[in-house]
Specification:
about 140 residues, mainly beta, Jelly Rolls, 6-stranded antiparallel beta sheet, globular, RmlC_Cupin_sf, Cupin domain-containing protein, RmlC-like_jellyroll
């Protein structure tokens, strides 16, 4: 596993160990049946740390969006196909893989489940205090969604 993958896995592991408490389920923008469940959240200084499990059914996606902070994700089950605003693949991540998403409106992307089984992601959001989990964005002109 790459250094980047290990860093992501460590971040998710640390968040799981440090952040305590339950949360309520929240819908994730995207296709039918896409669901996000907050596992825990904490605020430290000016940062919000939110650990969330996202399930994306086969054939569905997150919708185009970006984040105001950095995300660290671990693919628990299935395969994540990640696309950037140029409509090009920015990675295919099978179960056991970790990835990082950079913050900012210049990093619009979509996560898609092109497989036949549900995709399950464990995601640590490191956001400026009070920021939303994600911000919707328009399709940048890609012929899929």
């Amino acid at each position: 596993m790459s250094q980047r993958g290990r860093v992501g896995m460590v971040a998710v592991g640390v968040a799981t160990a440090v952040l305590v408490g339950g949360g309520t389920a929240e819908a994730t923008p995207g296709g039918p049946g896409v669901v996000g469940e907050i596992i825990s959240r904490a605020t430290v200084g000016e940062k919000d740390y939110v650990l969330r499990r996202i399930t994306i059914p086969a054939g569905q996606g997150t919708g185009w969006h970006f984040h105001d902070g950095t995300l660290y994700a671990f693919v628990e089950k299935g395969t994540l196909s990640h696309f950037d605003s140029t409509c090009e693949s920015s990675g295919v991540h099978p179960a056991g893989d970790a990835l990082t998403e950079a913050p900012g409106a210049q990093n619009v992307h979509i996560g898609r489940n092109l497989g036949t089984v549900p995709l399950v992601l464990d995601v640590l959001y490191v956001l400026p205090h009070g920021a939303p989990l994600s911000q919707d964005a328009s399709n940048p002109g890609c012929d899929f969604e």
